[in-house]
Amino acid sequence: MGELGPDEGAEGAEGAENTYSLRPDLQHRFKSSTVKECIRAILKERLADVQYKPEEMAELTKSLSDTIKDRLKEEGFDRYKMVVQVVIGEQRGEGVNMAARCFWDADTDSCAHDVFMNDSLFCVVAAFGCFYY
Question: What pLDDT score was predicted for residue 69?
Answer without folding.
Answer: 95
